[in-house]
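Hi again,

Forgot to attach this to my earlier email, sorry! This is the prediction with thymidine-5'-phosphate bound. I've pasted everything inline since the attachment limit keeps bouncing my files.
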Amino acid sequence: MQKLEQLYEGKAKKVFKTDDPELYIVDYKDDATAFNGQKKGQISGKGVINNRMSNFLMTIMEKAGVPTHFVKELSDRETLVKKVSIVPLEVIVRNVAAGSFSKHYGVEEGTKLLNPTLEFSLKDDALDDPLINEYHITALGVATRQELDRITEMTFKVNEVLKAYFVGVGIELIDFKIEFGKTSDGQIILADEISPDTCRLWDIETRQKLDKDRFRRDMGNVEDAYNEVFARLGLKA
Ligand code: TMP
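Structure tokens for the complex follow:
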């Protein structure tokens, strides 16, 4: 399968058409941004790690009954995926307080939440991805009630499966962001990526951060953290 015309370049990936109208190729970059692109940098080898890790985790989701866009890994950085139109929502689950949740509600980072939380942000860089509630989402036609119910059901399933998988390799899943897409026949499937760019992952014992917060907060050892998660999942360069 060959890359044809580039459709889109995002902050971390490029998307290309293929000769099959229902399939795209995504190409993962080493570029890293934070704070809506205000902070820019590179995490050497990140594209390879995120591509392979995301494909590995998407395969686990498929086995758990969550349909995804994943079709086939083509190379270290390139993956064949189903064509979808992205539902413009960042779907965020939190198991432990951190990041913007800690800031908004004055809760110390690392405080275990009594139940997993679900929140949505509207994917719109010009508006700085504002938080949005379910009434707003349906009122604006971003997704229907049925689509939101399906997204919610799949999201909590992803949380359960991902959390259990990471515990098995000594990692606590603090929170994560996922995105969904709609196929040509209207099916909602898991899309985008699952990686240390989009999850907060802490070592269970030491509570050391093994994710993009090391880049966001200039903590150093960013590449080491990504490599550590990659290795714990049993993946090899
Ligand atoms: P937050 O605490 O900054 O709201 O982030 C919650 C989770 O979402 C965290 O795992 C990081 C992830 N995330 C993204 O993947 N992309 C983003 O643009 C943001 C702001 C957060």
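Residues 131 and 144 are 17 Å apart (CA to CA). The mean pLDDT is 98.

That should be everything now.

G.
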